[in-house]
């Protein structure tokens, strides 16, 4: 299988910095030893066990009446781990009636408890095939780290078990995957490094920029609309309070008409020459109403707002039409035919 790293079952002796598998107690584990009362001393049996074992090596969990528990511990960095054993059957010792049990802990959590019974294995020359006893995979998305610990414990009740156990190898898929290797290093040669993809980096960079730009755009739009609304209100208020824009009748005293001395002034001439007009769009005319004192002296400015210029207050002697208190009107034929006498 590709990307599998094998931790050899043999202990690392003096001179090595770190053992691949730490056995405890060390005297209770025997490297490449044959079990007592197993019929594997003949040549065919020796050849078979060498062919079955990974790399031709194995390590027995040695039974002792006063040592009821032994352990093997290792660490690895990966996404899957598997443990292989070889079992030996004590065919020459019918009094071996005890049963051993294997416990597997991953990261100090019990994952499997397995009783080792002879009926589960197919023995040839008292040797079982290489057997996968424990396997566990890890979810990289749920695990905070890829570094894990594995602890194997073998126990017995004090009576020699009918089946002896021998650790063959511990194998794992390294994270990140590395080439096949067999060595004594406790940790894999490659260090797992998690790098975000380019698409994730792009999203993380672009998303804050787009968010800031959108907020700024909304703020500018709100400011523009508020300012425009205020300007419209200001213009409406100015138009509403400007006297020249208001409708109604304007009282124009005769004393304000310039050039009245020595000449007759008609309403038409005043409008055409002496008055300013404003042709701004007009609102609908207000209902007609007479000012206090009657209509004398008032001009209806519709459809123009007529703003009179100021004139000096003058009245030429001998003229018999009023110059104060009303607006000039054209003289009647009687006024022209019979001018008033002067003193």
UniProtKB/TrEMBL annotation:
<keyword id="KW-0472">Membrane</keyword>
<keyword id="KW-1133">Transmembrane helix</keyword>
<keyword id="KW-0812">Transmembrane</keyword>
<feature type="region of interest" description="Disordered">
    <location>
        <begin position="176"/>
        <end position="199"/>
    </location>
</feature>
<protein>
    <submittedName>
        <fullName>Uncharacterized protein</fullName>
    </submittedName>
</protein>
<feature type="region of interest" description="Disordered">
    <location>
        <begin position="273"/>
        <end position="343"/>
    </location>
</feature>
<feature type="transmembrane region" description="Helical">
    <location>
        <begin position="205"/>
        <end position="226"/>
    </location>
</feature>
